[in-house]
Automatic annotation (TrEMBL):
A GO term, aspect molecular function: carboxypeptidase activity
Top-rank taxon: Bacteria
One GO CC term on file: cell outer membrane
Region called Disordered, residue ranges: 893-912
A Pfam family the protein falls into: OMP_b-brl_3
Record field: transmembrane: 16-39
Record-given protein name: Carboxypeptidase family protein
PANTHER family: PLUG DOMAIN-CONTAINING PROTEIN (PTHR40980), TONB-DEPENDENT RECEPTOR-LIKE BETA-BARREL DOMAIN-CONTAINING PROTEIN (PTHR40980:SF4)
Keywords of the record: Carboxypeptidase, Cell outer membrane, Hydrolase, Membrane, Protease, Transmembrane, Transmembrane helix
Length: 912
């Protein structure tokens, strides 16, 4: 090569290479252009047909082109020096044709593009080809319309389209590159749209007169809502309920919207799936493992205007913690917040037996590379429950009638705060902290009146009257730090995180019992007992998760997680009613736990035309040690377990989707279940912990058919072995409940979700689950039981003039199982009325829960020794009337939200 360079008039090797590259590039472009001019048929797919799904956040044109190349067979040719300066591009995530994507990227630039087979040539247009259109958009009040959308389409070729946003003064500036007639369209969220024809002639600049838009927000909003995406969509491993753009987008909150999710309903206290399955709640992939009431309060504080969708993982995959039981519901918030301050404020007043109030606020502030979020929740909700219990001991024939009245004065408070900082376009770091506690003490009082009847007698011969008071307090703190690196332009990422959790429990309780004869006179010294439970836990969690897109249709995920926890529980028993009473060393105990869980997982997802599959495997090692400081008793285990998952999805056109899924899961006992302590509800009813509990496993197989992205039909099978259930026995007239690994469950079920729009103003949703369940009880009981169980839920939503909304919903669950025993049918009807103001920013909601007093849960325990029938006549959380107000506010230019990174420590937090 060196000799050749010398022969060529002394040209150096480097100069020759540069010259050769330039000539080759020009010749190559000329050949491609010639082929294009001569070609009649193009074998490659048109750029108007191939689709890409990309999002840009202040990125360069070069990055966008590489992202398109990664998802298609196209290759771009351009002069890098010419396009290097095009940056700061923003593009909302959506699926578009390659042609439309390029129009969006190159609008208002002097670049044009041309397809030549599977190649796309970008070239700079000459100045004489550019024609500028200027104008201003005003409202009917002669004030500028900010951020109006202006689009222009050539009449003879609708594919030639450019668009722009008006500035804060309503002014806009557009460029086109061909003469002729164009269709100009101006639209805004707050006005009607305006369409008119303009002609581009010889003049290089066209100044339009002021364009006036009339206010008519309702029409535009209706057009936007109907549209573009179905209510329900299906991917390989999850079902998505699209709230954004639906009839549920305005004036609701996250908790209310659970009633819209197929198969999910809220009964006033618990969120259930298909009648009796558990629900695990995530928000933006962060698990919300809060105490029940705290979780409900937090969900109420999330307005529907901030929610993009609900994602249901009915059969969770290997990337999720194996501890996840039931369905996972992930609330996906909209991917945009605004510069400046945005958020919502909510307050409410409710009445049951007592007056209850709630209050919450959520704030988001964005400035530069920082995004700061904060929230506050307060809830004062006194509760009253009333149980009536009928009990018979078979060996003696002694019967008792028992009334329990339970009053709880509950105050809860929660804070959360987070900050994200973008190191650059790919890397983000963040910190978050949240705390949940009760301000002061929770005061519980329980009175129990037991009347004993001799055999064959209707008169009470003696009775017990017990009073228990508790001043319960707790605090729960979690801090999380994360690092995210977006590895490529297709969604690949690396997440690294650390979480620290601290839990502190203080539960003192005083119990006094009086013994009365048939005349109501005390005939025995009172029994007094004081107990105090203290619990502290510290947990450290480290996690790393990798997602890599090998191609637009192939995705792999891999990761690992380590959880280390130290838990210390103490139970003091004292013979008296105060903390200064004499200690009972025979019952008092202290138990310590050390647990380490190490997990690794990997998944592979592949889509091909109408087919898709995903396989995954998770391995977890559990190393557990526990010791009683008082007695020296020890327990422990150290074992590895595997958790596979698999999905197969088949789509037939746009209207039919079939999914077959399988997973294996684990359920570990909670730390408080393992405590070998005895808790007294009254002198005759106790609960005992069990340090010998071990985890149990379940297998889930489901087949789902989704019709027209609305109607869901599911057939499934579930089984568990050595499940944890409460075994109720007796010692004389003392009823003892103790959790044990004695339950084997099998059930086959089918479930139907059918939403129907009966009229323009009436929507009807219904979900029905039919379940055949068998229950085998191990040990001395040796029972086999089976039941056919059905659950029906329905909701009617009426949209009335003047932005009034009425919803009437009802739920019915047939006789089922409560652990090992019979749970009788439950039913309820609830009514809601809502009125919206100020473009749905302000919403007033009135709720009436169970106005007909239908909800009276009842269960029965039958053993060879005794029978016990429990009826709850009064349930405050299920029967109340209330009024709440919610206001949403925002200001500033839209920008992207805080990073949605999973705070991995939430899994460990659940078991506290």
């Amino acid at each position: 090569m060196k000799n050749s360079a010398i022969l060529w008039n002394g040209i150096t090797n480097k100069q020759f290479i540069i010259w050769l590259m330039r000539v080759s590039f020009i010749i190559f472009l000329s050949i491609l252009t010639s082929f294009q001019l001569m070609a009649v048929d193009v074998n490659g797919q048109s750029m108007s047909e191939q689709k890409v799904a990309i999002r840009l956040e202040d990125e360069t044109l070069l990055t966008a082109l590489k992202r398109i190349e990664a998802q298609t067979t196209f290759r771009f040719y351009y002069r890098k020096a010419e396009i290097r300066g095009i940056s700061g591009l923003h593009l909302e995530f959506n699926t578009r044709s390659v042609e439309n994507t390029l129009y969006e990227l190159l609008k208002n630039s002097d670049f044009s593009f041309k397809q030549i087979e599977n190649n796309i040539l970008l070239r700079r247009s000459t100045l004489q080809d550019a024609y500028t259109i200027k104008g201003r958009v005003l409202g009917s009040n002669s004030k500028p319309v900010e951020f109006a959308t202006i689009s222009i389409t050539k009449v003879s070729n609708p594919q030639i389209k450019f668009s722009a946003l008006a500035d804060t003064g309503g002014r806009f500036n557009l460029k086109v590159y061909e003469r002729g007639d164009y269709l100009l369209k101006i639209s805004s969220l707050e006005t009607d749209s305006l369409i008119q024809t303009i002609n581009i002639g010889a003049s290089k600049e066209l100044q339009l007169p002021d364009l006036v838009l009339n206010r008519s927000a309702i029409q535009l909003k209706n057009v936007a809502i109907k549209g573009t995406r179905p209510l329900i969509s299906r991917s390989i491993d999850k079902l998505t309920l699209n709230i954004e753009g639906s009839a549920y987008e305005n004036g609701e909150n996250a908790l209310r919207l659970f009633s819209v999710i197929p198969g999910v309903n809220f009964d006033g206290k618990d969120i259930r799936f298909r009648g009796d399955e558990g629900v695990t709640v995530y928000v933006d992939n962060r698990r919300m493992l809060l105490p029940g009431d705290q979780l409900l309060g937090y969900l109420r504080s999330i307005p529907s205007e901030s929610i993009k969708s609900f994602e249901l993982k009915i059969v969770p995959g290997a990337e999720n913690d194996a501890q996840n039981s039931g369905v996972i519901v992930n609330i996906v918030l909209k991917s945009e917040f605004k510069y400046g301050l945005s958020g919502n404020v909510k307050g409410g007043f409710f009445h049951s037996s007592e007056n209850n109030v709630i209050g919450s606020t959520f704030l988001n502030y964005r400035a530069g590379k920082f995004n700061i979020q904060g929230g506050f929740n307060y809830r004062r909700w006194p509760a009253f429950y009333e149980d009536h219990i009928e009990q018979v001991f078979h060996d003696t024939g002694v019967a008792s009638s028992q009334d329990e009245k339970y009053f709880e004065l509950y105050n809860s408070i929660a804070y959360n705060a987070s900050v994200d900082y973008k190191l650059d376009q790919r890397q983000t770091i963040g910190l978050s902290y949240n705390m949940f506690s009760n301000p002061g003490d929770i005061r519980n009082s329980l009175t129990t009146d037991v009347k004993y009847f001799s055999p064959n007698s209707n008169a009470a011969d003696s009775s017990l009257f017990s009073e228990r008071t508790t001043r319960f307090s707790y605090s729960n703190h979690m801090a999380n730090a994360f690092y995210r690196n977006k590895l490529d332009t297709m969604g690949g990422r690396l997440d690294i995180g650390y979480s620290f959790i601290y839990y502190d429990l203080n539960d003192p309780s005083a119990l006094e019992t009086r013994f009365l004869n048939d005349l109501g006179q005390e005939f025995h010294p009172r029994d007094n007992q004081f107990t105090k439970t203290r619990g502290r836990s510290t947990i450290h969690v480290f996690n790393a998760d990798l997602e890599k897109h090998l191609s637009p249709s192939t995705v792999i995920n891999a990761g690992g997680k380590f959880t280390g926890s130290i838990t210390d529980y103490t139970m003091d028993y004292r013979n008296g009613l105060t903390e200064q009473s004499p200690l009972d060393p025979l019952q008092s105990d202290r138990f310590k736990y050390n647990e380490h869980i190490l997990a690794f997982y990997g998944t592979l997802a592949q889509t091909y035309k109408q087919w898709g599959f995903k396989i995954g495997l998770r391995a977890e090692q559990t190393n557990y040690e526990g010791i009683s400081v008082t007695t020296g008793q020890t327990i422990g285990r150290n074992q590895w377990n595997l958790f596979p998952s698999a999905y197969l999805n088949r789509k037939l056109g746009e209207n039919h989707s079939y999914t077959l899924s399988y997973n294996r899961r684990i359920e570990r006992p909670g730390f408080r279940q393992l405590n070998p302590f005895i808790s007294y509800a009254n002198i005759n009813t106790v609960e005992s912990g069990n340090p010998d509990l071990v985890p149990y496993f379940s297998n889930n197989l489901q087949f789902e058919y989704l019709l027209k992205n609305r109607y869901s039909f599911t057939l499934g099978y579930q089984n568990t072995e050595n499940g944890i259930a409460a075994n109720v026995t007796n010692l004389g007239d003392v009823i003892v409940s103790k959790n044990e690994n004695i339950s084997d469950n099998n059930n086959v079920f089918t479930s139907f979700y059918i939403p129907v729009k009966l009229t323009k103003w009436w929507e009807f949703n219904t979900n029905t689950t039919l379940r055949y369940r068998t229950l085998d009880v191990q040990g001395s009981l040796g029972l086999h039981r089976e039941k056919f169980i059905y659950n029906m839920w329905a909701a009617n939503k009426f949209t009335l003039p003047g932005k009034y909304y009425i919803e009437v919903s009802g739920n019915y669950i047939s006789s089922s199982f409560r652990d090992l025993y019979d749970q009788f049918n439950e039913k309820s009807i609830n009514i809601l009325v809502k009125k919206s103001f100020f473009k749905d920013r302000l919403n007033l909601t009135s709720e009436i829960w169970d106005p007909f007093h239908l909800y009276k849960p009842r269960y029965e325990i039958n053993t060879p020794e005794f029978s016990r029938n429990v009826l709850r006549n009064k349930v405050d959380y299920a029967r109340y009337i209330g009024l709440s107000i919610n206001y949403n506010f925002s200001s500033g230019k839209k920008q992207s939200n805080t990073e949605n990174v999973d705070a991995a420590g939430n899994e460990a937090r659940r078991r506290l």
